[in-house]
Amino acid sequence: MDFAIARRRMVEQQIMARGVTDQRVLDAMLQVPRHLFVEPGLHSHAYSDASLPIGEKQTISQPYMVASMSAALELEGHERILEIGTGSGYQSAILSLLVKRVYSIERISSLAGRARKVLDQLCLSNVNIKVGDGTIGWKDQAPFDGILVAAGAPDIPTEYLQQLEIGGKLVLPVGDRSQQILMRITRLENGNYKREQLMGCRFVPLIGEQGWLTADED
Ligand code: SAM
Fold it and tell me: Which residues are annotated as active site (predicted)?
C-alpha cells in the first residue's frame, strides 16, 4: 500500500470535500503518517473515513474530525495549545506541526506511553504529555491560546474557561455519552465568552472530576 497516495486521497475526499480549507491544516494532514498511530494489523485501514480502536476501549479520532477541530482553533503558528485526550498521539502530531508547543493530557498511562514513543520516532519534540485527569486542565502551564478536547463532556469544565487566554478558543464536544455537539468557545476581551455550535459528533466520554464520573453508564 502506498501510504502517501492514501493520505492524499484522505485529504481530498474526506477533508477538503467536506469544506476544510485551512491550508496549514491540510498540509499537516498530508504529512503525518496516521498508520504509525494504529496497530500494524490496522495499517491498511489507517486512511479510511473512520475512527479506529487503539486499545483500552479508546479510539484514534476520524481524520475529518481531527482536521475540523484543528481548523476550528484558527491557528497561526505561535500558539501554546492544551490538548485533552492524547489517545494515540495522532491529533497531537497534527497540532505539533501547527503551533509552537502542545501540552497534552491522557488519563490512561499505557496510551500516553505509546503516543510518546511514536511522537519521538517522528522527532516531534514540541509535545509535552502528562498522565492525569485532563478535566482540570494544566494550571502550571496556563493560560493557553487554544484548548482542544478530544472526548465528550457532559458540560463545559469551568477550568478550561479559566485557563484560556483572552482571544483564545476552546473546541470541545458537549452532550451525552453517545452523541455530542462540537462547540467552539472564544474568550472575549470584555470578559465574556462567545459560544458557537459547529457540528454533531460522537466521542468517547471525558472521564474525571469535571467530566463523567465513571467510564461506563452511571
Ligand atoms: N485525538 C486522539 C487521537 O488522535 O488518537 C483520540 C482521543 S480518544 C477519542 C479520547 C481520549 O481521551 C482517550 O484516550 C481517553 O482515555 C482520553 N480521556 C478521557 N477522559 C480523559 C481525561 N479526563 N483526561 C485525559 N484524557 C482523557
Answer: 61
